[in-house]
Amino acid sequence: MSLRPTLDFLLHDWLGVENLNQRERFADHSAETFAAVLDTCECIARDKYAPFNRLVDTQEPHFDGEKVVLPQATHDAHKAYAESGMLSAAQDHDIGGMQLPYTVEAAANAFFAMASVSIGSGMLTTGNANLLMKHGSEAQKQVFALNEFSGRWSGTMCLSEPQAGSSLSDVLTRAVPDGEAFEADALGPRYRLKGNKMWISAGEHELTENIVHLVLAKIPDANGQLVPGTRGISLFIVPKKMVDAQGQLTGVRNDVALAGLNHKCGWRGTTNTLLNFGEGRYPIDGQAGAVGYLVGQAGKGLQCMFHMMNEARIGVGMAATMLGMAGYHASLDYARNRPQGRAVGPAGKDPAAPQVRIIEHADVKRMLLAQKAYAEGALALELYCARLVDEHHTGASEAADEARLLLEVLTPIAKSWPSEWCLEANSLAIQVLGGYGYTRDFPVEQYWRDNRLNMIHEGTHGIQGMDLLGRKVLMENGKGLLLLAGRIQATVERATQNPELAVHAHALGEALAQVGAATEAAWATGVPAEALANAVPYMQAFGHTVLAWIWLDVALVAHGGADTAARTGRLTAMRYFFHYELPKIGAWLAVVSSRDATCADMPEEAF
Ligand SMILES: Cc1cc2nc3c(=O)[nH]c(=O)nc-3n(C[C@H](O)[C@H](O)[C@H](O)COP(=O)(O)OP(=O)(O)OC[C@H]3O[C@@H](n4cnc5c(N)ncnc54)[C@H](O)[C@@H]3O)c2cc1C
């Protein structure tokens, strides 16, 4: 079973992505060039990623005393990815990019996430370089971003510290000006950084010639104190190896030291590191302190980082989605081949009858259909959000602004919904395989372990819930929520005209009204602690309503298509979602609307 027909249906039949080439930025593209990019990525993912997914899980990165050692397969996969040009896919032609729409880029990257999310492709490097293209100086773009886009160097995002994860305002890494002439460096105002960064993905390896760390740190005030809160946070480029203004390595190692590798539950193909900045292991000019170049304005570091968050979070959602999809395909394949049990006939079971394959049991079909509804629904959502990114970047001004606002509201869902429900899909995949699913002889347990990360990084589930209910649905006087409601309502109206879909249109309309009422009820007292105590159930209900909308919208297109097995599959997955999933929102919204304080009021000693 292949992912490609589903991607093609969503990209072309549903989103009409080929129309994007009517825009000036994408004028050189056509349905053929989009297909060629997908072909290339599908091929590299099949040859260089998929065969090694288990290997990178079992041969974890290790430190040999000098360097971090990764399997050769990881080096080969990274090289093939960089050579494909995908690191700079979205960039301008004149810097070697393809000017590819983000929608197509995201779809093409889906192949790698499905084949081996653990090896990783270019999400961090591209995110890092994109940030520099937006906020860096000309020299920073030329030296750091372009070398990342070419694959010569790779990038990291160093936000978290041992004591500052969700709460970045508590970052303790300090940056002080490096001498009197610190502002005169060609690569940007030069600082010395000291501090520890925890959980840094791809923080140390030999895959590339250099590593460009983007580090959040605070510049102390005149009294040497760190400014409390996020206002004091600045952003710095800290290369692992020092470079000159032409981008050549100087031969000097920067004062960034690997303090240790973290040993993870999953996603083991990518190193995860504790990095010590400025501890003096590699002094520069006789002094301890990692050299870092300020990006943008001092004190605006978090804003620069947040600029990249939408795409990073769509990337996380896509990774979760594709793990869900991988588990779905693996368990479907297994269920088609595993004989077990007998059909229940009118007179019960006949022990003399031959065994049936488990795909013939209604409960196994339920588990497969749930996975299909979660993973394919999530894929549609991610591509829809990616299409909004393109609209935001290249649409006419009003449409671009609408896309920006819609993305604000939808991004917490794009990140969190697949993280929760495609993880559930992976759990169901294990269940379909029974005892074999729980062994390491089959891939599904690894998919679950790899996917378990996604509710944790890029803002935990709890933080995403608070972002949605505490900020996104309220921002600009609720305009984003209204816009989203308008789009959902438009789908409801179209589906109401279709006798087969009208019943679902009605259910979606009701769900939308319930979410709206719950949003108001949560904030009825205006007390944030009361409203936000049930932010996660709110996000679950919101997410399920969004997914019901996405499925109904997809069904409208599928319904008009030829009578194929794929059409039946899509329409049945949509029905599954409306019959088995959407009704769950009632329970979630009940505690939100009543501002239920059962959890918030539980005394600590009573646990
Ligand atoms: C494999 C992996 C890779 C990572 N890669 C990177 C990376 O490349 N760069 C980077 O900077 N970081 C990275 N991280 C760090 C990740 O972003 C953090 O783990 C995450 O932000 C959570 O921080 P924490 O682990 O300190 O948990 P905490 O913030 O301590 O949270 C623990 C629990 O408490 C809850 N909680 C915390 N605060 C609140 C609150 N105010 N209200 C309600 N609930 C709350 C959380 O939701 C969570 O459930 C990575 C983490 C992992 C595991």
Characterization of this structure:
- With 607 residues, this protein is of the alpha+beta class.
- 52% of the residues lie in helices and 11% in strands.
- It has 19 helices and twelve strands.
- It has helices spanning 4-14, 31-49, 53-58, 72-83, 102-116, 123-135, 138-149, 301-307, 309-337, 362-394, 397-433, 444-451, 461-472, 475-496, 502-522, 528-532, 535-559, 565-581, 585-593; strands spanning 62-63, 68-69, 153-158, 174-177, 190-201, 210-218, 233-239, 241-243, 249-253, 256-261, 272-277, 290-295.
- The strands form three sheets. Strands 3, 4, 5, 6, 7, 10, 11 and 12 form an eight-stranded mixed β-sheet that branches. A two-stranded antiparallel sheet has the order 1-2.
- Strand 1 (62-63) and strand 2 (68-69) form a beta hairpin.
- Helix 11 packs antiparallel against helix 13, helix 11 (397-433) crosses helix 17 (535-559) and helix 14 (475-496) packs parallel to helix 17.
- The structure holds flavin-adenine dinucleotide (FAD).
- The site of flavin-adenine dinucleotide has 19 residues, from strand 3, strand 5 and helix 13.
- Residues 156-160, 165-166, 199-201, 264, 267, 272, 453, 456-457, 460, 462-463 line the site of flavin-adenine dinucleotide.
